[in-house]
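Tokens as discussed.
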């Protein structure tokens, strides 16, 4: 465990780490956002004809988001690490595996509720992280806050809608992919070089 050192500038540490990896992270976010949005559009546009192919592509996209959460957790500086990344990563990977191996009829309700709880975790994590960044007076946290609120709103919608058919799951999955892709796009657009 690292002990707190009052002489060390933790805000400057996160700003330096952010500025060093910002371009690489921004490029990755744009690519991931494009893939998620395309997968979401394809899932909504072709609900029955190519569902199996889209289901596998969506599973790969969801697993990629899960892996990204693990990478984010491991690359974040010590005092800004958030265990919600681990929970979100595990839930994303479980949903992706379920999409790969289980028939849709068995997983419609389970995946719907897992997606809702995943979005709640992601939204809470983003809001918590934005709050910690604001505490250290790190600027440009509005896109992160907006992304967190967007995730929580979608989670509430998922929990309130009836989820009885495979077609509903298809559109729910499309909405999840689109909202997650848009959230990554918003975060990528909000990635500015930081300074105190």
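Sequence:
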């Amino acid at each position: 465990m690292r002990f707190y050192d009052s002489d060390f500038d933790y805000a400057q540490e996160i700003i330096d780490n952010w500025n060093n990896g910002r371009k690489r992270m921004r490029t990755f976010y744009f690519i991931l956002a494009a893939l998620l949005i395309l997968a979401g559009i394809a899932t909504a546009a072709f609900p029955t004809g190519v569902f199996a192919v889209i289901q596998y592509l969506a599973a790969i996209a969801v697993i990629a988001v899960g892996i990204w959460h693990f990478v984010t957790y491991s690359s974040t500086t010590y005092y800004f690490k958030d265990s919600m990344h681990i929970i979100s990563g595990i839930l994303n990977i479980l949903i992706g595996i379920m999409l790969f191996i289980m028939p849709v009829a068995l997983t419609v309700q389970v995946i719907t509720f897992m997606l809702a709880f995943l979005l709640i975790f992601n939204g809470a994590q983003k809001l918590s992280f934005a709050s910690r960044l604001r505490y250290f007076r790190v600027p440009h946290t509005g896109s992160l806050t907006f992304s967190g609120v967007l995730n929580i709103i979608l989670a509430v919608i998922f929990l309130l809608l009836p989820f009885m058919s495979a077609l509903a799951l298809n559109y729910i999955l499309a909405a999840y992919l689109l909202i997650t892709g848009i959230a990554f796009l918003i975060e990528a657009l909000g990635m500015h070089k930081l300074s105190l």
